Protein 1
Amino acid sequence: MPLYTDAIPGLPTPDENPNAYTGKDIPTLEVFLPEKDKSNGTAIIIFPGGAYVGLAYQEEGSNIGALFAKQGITAFVVKYRLPIGYRLQTSKEPMSGNKYLVPLQDAQQAIKRVRMNATAWHLDTSKIGIMGFSAGGHVASSLGTHFRRAYIPNKENTNLRPNFMILVYPVISMKDELTHSMSKSLLLGDIPSPESVKMFSNEDQVTADTPPTLLMHAGDDRLVKVDNSIVFYEALIKHKVPAEMHLYAKGDHGFVLRLPAEEWMQPILLWMKKNGWTKD
Amino acid sequence: MFYKHSTSQIIPLYPKGIPKEPLESGENPYAYTGRDIPTLEVFPPEEYKSNGTAVIIFPGGAYADLNYRKEGRNIAILFAKQGITAFVVKYRLPVRGRFPESTHPLSGKRSLVPLQDAQQAIKRVRMSAATWHLDPNKIGVIGFSAGGHLAASLGTHFQQAYIPNKKNTKLRPDFMILISPLISMKDELTKFSSRYHLLGENPSPEKIEFFSNEDQVTGDTPPTFLMHAEDDYQVNIENSIVFYEALHQHNVPAEMHLYARGGHNFVLHLPPREWLQPLLLWMEKEGFVEVVNPVWHAYLSWLFFCS
């Protein structure tokens, strides 16, 4: 289903740049419902990775959604817009609008939609979590640290804070020493402003209100340094946010595609159960 | 939890006499009275055949005591059930007795005795590998809390022998498992009671550095598995994190599981499935356990489906 029922926010007007947004990448939300009597009222919104240049929609999206649905968890996969369409602009002014906000807008809209339609899907509004892989982990952790300010129209004042976050080999930081430089340049542009780097270095945006978080990463990740997860974990414990982290020696980037599902799903399911988001 | 094991056997750690710690100037010559004889208790696998892997267990106790049963025997029995031969070390404590006064003549003088006993333990197990049907290249160590500090000290100080070692037996463990470990002796990270018992009052910067194991990691440090809880108010979780970072920096394969809740040495309160399964999977992945036992995978899936 389309993510937005009204107009999509943040679209450039044609006179701004006619080529900036072609309308081909309409953001969508795909729902994976558990079998009728099996739903436990918990929802998880999944943000696939893809370095902000594409979306590993199946591997880090629908496949995972189906796995959660089997566990009685209602899963949603978000096809969020990529900032890349906007970078084609021959921009005269810096950032030519806040185009780096579009993935975050779509993330906020996703949780808003799910929350507003909770009754339709028989969801418990206190059990709506998010999950992100790689750059999708950056989208998810951005949502989990930037929920106070709405970047979308939110007349209803729907709570945009996720109840929990699961970040799998996530990009966290936009600082040069930690970031995945391709994701960074696609999100923030080649010469990002210090303000945008600060805003999207999510380790610096953690507060005591940041939702409980589960992190998973492999030490031999050649794309996204494991230190992304470590600095985020340290920021969480500094603010006394309950956090769990599993670091594996081997697995590299994208290990969910290579490891047997039970090996990496088990800690997630145990964690959700321990925290009362799922039951037996 | 109730465990029983019928065939364990306790042997003295040093058959030929306990070595004295290298004397420091002004040391009390009566440093060792022989009252606390270090021992090694072996738990041979009972239900299945041995798979040739061994773990040497160092119980915790803030270097003032040993939680021998909970962080020793009970753990050994769990491993023995998996076909892994387990050894529990009763290592000497730096200062005899519980919570000594700071004026104790031995305060800070016997910092090396736990490490000596750890080295001797791995030396004995390796030298007797044939007797116990062990693969001498699959001998690991596991330590809890201060025992984790001892295990990590062994894993980072194996190049120099602090015990007589004429045959030049390899003192490097093949793998390390550290549960809620104390790693550092630095003010900002250490547990002061443990540091006090090991190093005494006002330890020298050299001593602190020597026993801050995060600074002693090299590319030769063995592959390591770490577990810790965020709400551990005894040993700061940062101990595990700094050790992981040191390992990662030196390209030593390391796995770390950090939990939000559980407190100190939480694995002792958890059902084994939650911590034993990742641990056994790791040992298998890293090749420290040869999977010869068909029950093994059945057991792992049982652990999983019990969840």
Note: Confidence is low (pLDDT under 50) at residues 23-34, 97-102 of chain B.
Protein 2
Amino acid sequence: MSLRVSACTEACRAAVDRAEALGVYAVIRLQDKVERAIGVVNGRIDLKSVEEVSGVGIQVFTEDWLSGFASSDIVTPGSLVDLVESAARLARESRAHGPEPAEGIARVRPLVAHVERAVSMGMDAIGHEEESGLVAGICRMTMEIDSRLAVRTFYRIVDEEWRIVRSDGGDVMFSMPRAAVMNMITARSDGQAASVNASLSGEDASVIASPEGRLRLHKRTAKAARTALALLGAPRARAGSYRIVIDYALAKGLAHEAFGHAAESDCMETSILAREGRLRAGERVAADIVTIVDGPLEGDYAYQPISANGVLRETVEIVKGGVLMRALADVFSAQQAGVPVTGAGRAESFRHVPVPRMSNIRITVDDPLPMDLAFEDVTPQDVRDCLARAGLLLEGAPVLYLSGYKGGQVNPAKGDFVFNCSAIYELTPNDIRLCQPAIFSGKVLSALGSIIAGIGRPILDAMGTCGKAGQSVPSSGGGNMFLVIDANEEITIGGV
Amino acid sequence: MSAAVETAEALARRLGEARGWRLVVNSVCSVDVGMDDSKLCGHYRPARMAREIAGSVFIIWEDGMVSRGRIDSKTLSRLPRDIELWRSLAYGDDDAAHIAQLMPPTQVELFDPRVADIVRDDAGPVFDAVSEIAATAREGGADMVDAGVGCSTVETVIATSSGLWVKYPETNAWCSWSIDKTMSGIRLGRYRETLSGLARAVSVTRRLALAAKARVKVDARDRRVLLTPRVVESFIGHYLLHNMAGENVAEGRSRYSLEQFREGAHVLRDDLSLTIDTAVPMGPGSYLCTSEGVPSGRLALIEDGQLASPILNTKYARRCKMAATPIPASGMPPGHAGLTLRAHNMENWAELLSGADDVILVDSVLGMHTQDPTAGNFSLAVPDGIVVRAGQFAGAAKVVISGNFFSVINEADTRFALSEADPNPGIELACHVES
């Protein structure tokens, strides 16, 4: 065993023994993370840092399933014993205030597993000087595109390990390597400004060190930078409902924010995908060409093979052929939601209690329209021509092509979502007009029901950070290169 | 000797040969209790306690290179190795390679022993506060309540190679609640009283949540919108804070250039000012000095509509050839961190609201973080925009509000109104509303 968390066996044993003596069930979550970051601003190194974070969170359950939690960054047998005692005391103190029992953990079978993801270009694959030089080079290359650009390049590589030990004998260890580089570009001229991002993510330093990674990032960056410059004089899109095209990063946003969160088992009390607290499995929620899947992918930025409760993470078909099939469920809320456990529990750190959440979510459609170009090489004209060939772009009915994902937010209880993009292209049979970004907002089920086509093969590396429950965990996903969503009164663009 | 002091002293001794250094070590203990979907201490919000040491160190080596490192409970036991690791990641940054000269920290009271008692001995008041929130919300007909209440004690040590050594205790208390997954509220403080007397604040949120249950239709047009102080906080945090940040100004990522600050460029209405004050006694965002040793205090960032100073740490102060400033605390709304927007002749919030007619009251928006702060344009979904007619809530509608933040707050007819409970004003302004 080479994982660092394997060295904590004695401390875990002490905690389990103390829990048994106190008559409580314990889940011990150990995290050990090494993270190195480099920031370059306008060609100059602005930050180099390394963080080594390790600690433990212990959640205990009393005989009547009341729960308490305690955490510390000291991982010794004595510290873990103290934490078990503190968590047990809090759980019992809560009894006087009418708490909700937290059943579920005892229903899953104990798992003993060790999943170590070996990467070819890990934390130590390239020297610090070379690494800094690569990141600075990416920043400078971006600045050379145009003198009106201010650029911040940020690179992060993470080697993260977890160990989950339970009172029932469950003991799992796994690693979650990841790396990402992002260019944040601001174009300024004549008192106007526009900001765009370009990024590349993966599991190791190849995102900055391999020729393929650098070329891909540069193509994305050049495309984004040109867009930022063009936006300086761009008009505003007129608010309204349109047929729209979204790229795969926005599709990831739609799948994650608008749909994935509503499919998480802890939301079933209020989710639009549930009725009386249970998943509406078997009901049609999208056009019949639509499939939505979530699950860990090897090599992905958001890879996590085992849940933070010590359960194998499954790949889940949430929607198949437009029909709602399964939820993303953890051990605590699966039964109440009427769904099987899929190992969906994730936590930001040892300080946090895990909640069901996505890893890599993708939304795809059957029989997509062909697009032979690489995504980075596709122009708005290529999108327009593809739509026109398929009869999806008609005279008098402009299509808005939304490019670049700039984040989103959703209310799973109401099904309201909002996303922003980097730019909007108004496509007509004879013209393409770049417009300022504006929000894409509406109702989740209306959006899914209005998907009428996909363009190109799926791309699944759209990177993000999921902020559910105040915890930040890596997320990713994608979809076909582009999705086409028909005009719908409940989906609007803008306006500004 | 406490663990924080022991760690700081050991580190300071080890760094004696460096050209310069500064460090901050926080020893934190906290307890919190939550309620999700009206369930107290359920699966995802058990009663929690945490203890941890967290901090950072900045080192200027003999060759002028600099390093940044993280401090935790294990730092003490692995010091030679950690210093070696930090050295291996040293880099050149001439503006950053500077330790602030010794300045006496501002004396600010930040500690309530009664809060420390809660953290150390008795979490009962934390449970009680959650119960009070839930009871108030339910009495008013709320279907679903989410809440979180907690307290912490922090012992902070800040030291620099220029001779600063300051150690001080602080306490924190916080309450947050959300009713029917639509409207929410927050209270931050340092006193024990932060956790009590919550009924009045929760009932304000409850009234909004109940109003949102009745749905009405509104026309799409330019119209008056009333942003509650809570929403104004998010506008200030997103648009003003970003553009006032020294690193963004210095690197061309702000709406404002350094030249504009030097010239005192007019960027807001004549009667508008933006001030930072991090020395408010028992203020939730107050402190004695920044982690770099810059004393806490009050400073105008925009005065009478004119740019006065960006927010500058020592690095960007050197780069901009200006004085380092207090820095707003992170992790809390800007007003609680000491950043306040003020207009001359501000009205009273309750009176503005009761006198409102044919306006949309906005208490929460979706998508703020997706907006471009430099351009100032906003296009935000409001799932529950409350229609106010003759000072009464007439129901709610889902709308999208849009405009340019810097334009709309500068309009002559834009009104600002303060409430007793909020550090920043509510704003009534005109913008486009899409239904």
Note: Chain A touches chain B through 81 residues (CB under 8 Å).
Protein 3
Amino acid sequence: MASLKELSKRQELLSPGHRACVGCGAALAIRQVLLAAQKVPVVASCCTGCLEIFTSIYPFSAWRIPWFHNAFENSAATASGMEAAYRALKRTGKFTKDVRFIAFGGDGGTYDIGLQSLSGAMERGHRMLYVCYNNDAYMNTGIQRSSSTPRGMHTTTSPAGTVIPGKQQNRKDLTEIMVAHNIPYVAQTEPAHWQDLNNKVERALDTDGPTFINIYAPCQLGWGYPPEDTMPLLRLAVETCFWPVYEVVDGKYKVNIKPKEKKPVVEFLKPQARFRHLFAPKNEHILDELQAEIDSRWESLLAKEALSQAGPKT
Amino acid sequence: MRQATDKNWKQVEHGGVIEAGTAFEYETGDWRSRRPIWDAAKCSHCLICWIYCPDGSILTSEGKMTGIDYVHCKGCGICARECPPKASAIRMISESEARD
Amino acid sequence: MAAKLKAMTGNEAMAEAMRQINPDVVAAYPITPATEVVQIFAGFVADGLVDTEFVAVESEHSAMSACIGAAVAGARAITSTASQGLALMYEMLYIAAGLRLPIILAEVNRSLSGPLNIHCDHSDTMGASYTGWIQLFSENAQEAYDSMFQAVRIAEHPDVLLPAMVTTDGFIISHGMEAMQVIGDAEVKKFIGTYTPKHRLLDTDDPRTVSPALLQDSFFEFKRVESEAMRKAKDVVVAVGQEFGKTFGRAYGLFEPYHLEDAEVAIVVMGSTAGTAKVAIDELRAKGQKVGMLKLRCFRPFPYVELAGALKHLKVLGVMDRSDTFSSFGGPVFNEIRSALYDEPKKPVTLNTIYGLGGRDINVEDIKGFFGRLLKVVESGRTDGLVSYLGVRE
């Protein structure tokens, strides 16, 4: 478990000078991932999206590691091809070093268009870590709804209009879908809890098999909040159980952060313009439904943890 | 600073394979409308600002903060916001104020 | 030179060629009529006959994505597909070529839905003809087998560095049994050489960024150099074909003329139909008709100079297309050949017939009938329409 002092002596593998928006949560998430990924050199694939664009506008690149952008829906398939090449070249003596693979993707390129490619790669058992930086919508194309978009959020394709108040469906739970792939390590984290994120990335990379980490990455532009409030907002996401911080190791659940005082979800929603319309009297029922959904998922998570800890019946 | 138009078609990088880490040459500090001011005397070197900077613009050496990279800092204000109240070593000022 | 005679189908021949190439990575997905190529190769993997890392991907799009990832990492990568599978990888084909990756694809020509048809025509490969891939057509299993090795050399040539597809006609060649000459493993290894890519992404000591985001000020240059590579590929196809001939006794080129030089009337054909056409031509020649054929092998790069040179003397030329462009002006080969001949001061009346779509059978009588139509044009000087359809129920 590295201290900040120790971490600060490591290489900044995401170079300053990238073109992410002011206060970008995705940039911070990836910076922290790369600070953690220094035991064995890493090679990364990345799908089209904010991260890809703001780090690689020709002739500049913010990547200090080998990095490849292929297309939008295939970061996982690309990484599996690289990993297969690595295994083949190592086996035939054409390459001798140790390398780890990370596939990066936003929620757009992961939950939706990239889901098939991710599922296939995870099922095939490649030794790779898939990092999803989740900002709750297709941000790079200007804030369109994805299946990760929370109920009620205003996006340009699920606008808060006079008749329909934002996205009508609840979020898909991709982390749980990954658990259902029976891969050795799955986790949710976010960069305000930097030590949690750091540990999880290290653990995933040490795991000999496919691993998946879902990182909540606030987008100040798409979510509508002052960029300096990124960390407090992330803490609220955790304290309201809107974004549970947990891990599943070989199918066993561990909820890493249990808020001492579980805050009502409105405390997370209120500071963000994307949810502002939900506070109109006619939409209040949505707030209740959201709270019920958050509570239900949280209870379910705690139950899964209890089941994991109970172990097999003798 | 390198430009996208430096190379003609015979010179462009084969297969789209370009040099790593060149973004460092790009001065995102030009974007700022406000900037953090660091008071070294008040700093406890907790490095909280360092871990939370999306742009890696908190400078450190041997585990201690040494300053702010104004060439790249975009002025998001996260560092000032996260600096522990006990230290309060970073405050934000506007770029116009900084120029005076 | 150790040559053996073996009975093989087109699919078996392509799979065997892949075994002998022994690529680092094969990422592939099954689709009729190419499935066997993947299946047979998987058998080689399971029996430890290759060193290949076989990735049983979950779609063709992922097949090409993984091959691209493997090639960028520094490996030799091969895949195989047909029809909908090739179409599903469409965006990735452009990327493979744009990133100058010498990936090889064993393509089995099959129609594109809809409605669904799993039989032979060239629409899938033609649909990929703007992607920057080298495209070689095979008359039979022998040509497909031989072309696989040549494709590796052509694609990996430093002047080229473009991906290449070798095609066979679905079911007709892919599943048709043939007696063919097989080359020994050691000879194949010597001919294809080892793959030394310009860059391997796995080299973490010397990191690179591959495929940055190009804006309006830089994309054009990357595409210009890509089109130059395709131009250079033509001479490489010829040189490799000649070297193959010297080494193994079967020479290959851009196309094969058949009774063409002294013909007055000829057809242009690609793929298996050329074999049938040879029989038709022999029968017509026996009756004194001065007919011939140009069997086009290399469709990409398109050898417009050489084609014009070989065809300009004809009185009437009938281009046979096993696909339609749906442009309302005939098939793709017709359009490109017509364009190649345009600047010739003396050139044949050039007609088109679209045939064999969705595996519609084409036989000796059909082709003789088409020649009859062409010969009538010589007589009358009139065409009665440039584009016709051969074998559809009227």
Note: Chain C has 13 helices and 16 strands.
Protein 4
Amino acid sequence: MDAERGLMLKVARGDQGAFAELAQRYAGRLLAVAGRLLGSRADAEDAVQRAFLSCYAGASGYNPRWAVSTWVYRILTNICVDELRRRTTREAHAERTTMAALAAGSANHQPPDAYLDLHRALARVPREARVLLALRYVDGLSYGELARIRGISINTVKSQLARGKTLLRDELGKRGAGHA
Amino acid sequence: MRDGKHRATTLDQLDRLLADYFRPGDAPPALARRITAEARRSGRGLEALEDRLGIEATPRGISLIRTGRAAGKPTTAAARHLVEQARLEIHEYLRGQRAFFRVPVDLEAVPDFQRRVLEAARQIPFGEARPYAWIAARIGHPRAVRAVGTALGRNPVPLIVPCHRVWRRDGGVGGYIFGTPVKDRLIALERITPVLEGCTSTRIVCRVGCVHGRHMRPDNRVVFASVDDARSVGYRPCKVCRPAA
């Protein structure tokens, strides 16, 4: 963890090699979070690129009291959440349907339909809980870190995760159970 | 029957399923190089526009924003105050620190048809675009698409009345009073400017650009997709900018 803080301080001094290393460390995980939240590889890459740009440009504002991961995930989730907002209004304007977004869904190395039930079930989980689920399962972040990333209390993190999982289980149950 | 199916997905199974689903893939190669190249290019050029703006106001609101000519001096203290407010808001807007305008506009001198066009354009949410035909339909003249274009082209208060959010149906930019490259940049700017942000220390959610936001430390900012989302995790809406309204 301290090695990462050192890396960040180098990035803040404009060290491009350090930035490349930071990007390499986080790119896969950030893409997984963004891909699963936004549903398309192109949107996810765009979000991750913007997040890294923001990390690079704002590195001097990095507060070493924070774990680097907290800081990086805060920046990424801020971007993804705003993208989700935009998508809701766009959908209301009927430019894009939920199903089209879902069908575009394969963000990872898995074939698109392998997790279609889960993907659809997740779309029914409220956004804040969905964001927490993604962070929790992509990187195994602790409740405390999730709380700091989203600026909420640890109890709220716990209740949101529990509620999200209950909803998912019910949804998958309705669809005749997921993939055992 | 329903219970039987529920049992088929236990929380343990769900845990494994989620872990598989969210497993990170590989990072695209040369990502870092692409980003640093992008960072070096990031002179956005909108700041130059700001310096060239002449702004006029009446005591009721902003009445004219144009480039390339000196604005008439405000005749009253109220008008002067409004011009200052507009300058500040435009300054923040062009830097991605504001997602709404509070300063009033005065469209009294504008003909009725054009005023209705401009009012309709004001309804387009921040960061979005609508075709000229959308405005035409909205004001009850679906065939007057060309007239809508002309009315927007003569928008006396661009930026504040967001005629840059109106594009051609085929995705073409259409015209713009400050030139089409600026129109492109404004849409790109709005695409990366969030609209709602919460302060992690006060647990208050504001519209981006609210006076409260100015005092917020960067590492206290969290973005929300809606006021309801923010409420669901313990934030309350700001009473000054009233994001729920």
Note: The mean pLDDT of chain B is 88.
